[in-house]
Amino acid sequence: MFPGFNSLLAATLPYLPKALVGLVARRYVAGETREEALEVVKRLNEQGFEATLDILGEHVSSKEAAAAVAAAYTELYHDIARMGLSANISLKPTHLGLDIDLETCERNLFKVLDAAAATGNFLRIDMENSPHTDDTLALYRTCLEQHPRVGPVLQAYLYRSRNDLAALMSSPLNFRLCKGIYQEPPEIAIQDRAAINDNFLALLRQAFEGGAYVAIATHDRPLITRAEELIRRLNVPPARFEFQVLYGVPMKGKLEALLAVAYKVRIYVPFGEAWYDYSLRRLKENPHLAGYVLRNLLRK
Ligand code: FAD
Fold first, then answer.
1. d(CA 280, CA 227)
2. Which of 25, 182, 214, 254 is deepest in the core (most CB within 10 A)?
3. Which pLDDT tens digit goes with each residue over 91-105?
4. Are 128 and 92 in contact (CB under 8 A)?
5. pLDDT band at 28 (very low <50, low <70, confident <90, very high)
6. Is 126 close to ligand 1, i.e. is its CB under 6 Å away?
7. Does 126 participate in catalysis according to the annotation?
8. Can you tell me the distance from the alpha carbon of 237 to that of 233, in angstroms, rounded to the nearest whole number?
9. How confident is the model over 275-281, as a mean pLDDT?
10. Average pLDDT estimate for 34-53
């Protein structure tokens, strides 16, 4: 594809008919309703995968809407328990009101955390763009005092992640390591893709050596292979890590290969009414995704 094609395509996406975006979203989103998403999780469990459920949405601007999101997540924990599913929950702080104020988000987070504790489950707090990093890590620390089964996300493209990881490891830590999805300025974020991968592995090594549990979240198969090599070299037991991917991303047999060596693989399963906005925002934030969209459309 010609240079700038991805950006051009991303810029025209808001004008595409909803049905067309829906064709693509259908692959990556597990439906609009809780029932549909829970069915997807059930199927994934039957195939040997764990799941983490995410209700689509972010940047909520009213306290009522943020409270409703917290209530929906609370119900979801009870559904997971009732159906006996192998799944936890991932959520975005701005979906629980972080853009409104820290207190609103914290209040909602505690409600969700109560349900996690009541059902003996785990809560992952996703990491959004850099203006939210400090608040999100502060929220995580407060949550950890209430319920031990909670974990943050660190992004390998941020220079600060090395120090954040060192600081977080002063308490028992279960974190997700990903490259980072948002466009961040060069002053704070590595821009070179190979250098991001090197930092990903450096952080992974730092985490293993520091005793943390790591959810290794990437679709980059060569990077997964390098992570596996590191695991073998450091002799890290499978109880100290898991692999994570987004629902619907083609992995060409890699996930089954990971399951075959008894590694845990968790699929991030997003669902909900906000699938259209979510898909467009992701596409605008990461023009590379536009290329995947086009390839998917052409395949269809
Ligand atoms: P890339 O080098 O970008 O991609 C590797 C290959 O995977 C590509 O060549 C492409 O073929 C394929 N691929 C990647 N993404 C897609 C896609 N969506 N559709 C189709 N093919 C694709 N980022 C955050 O900033 N905060 C988070 O909290 C966060 N949570 C995440 C949770 C999970 C489980 C995963 C898997 C990712 C998460 N991310 C998060 C996104 C992550 O930071 C990356 O931006 C994203 O996964 C793409 O990078 P990659 O590691 O897959 O490598």
1. 31
2. 214
3. 999 999 999 999 999
4. yes
5. confident
6. yes
7. yes
8. 11
9. 75
10. 98
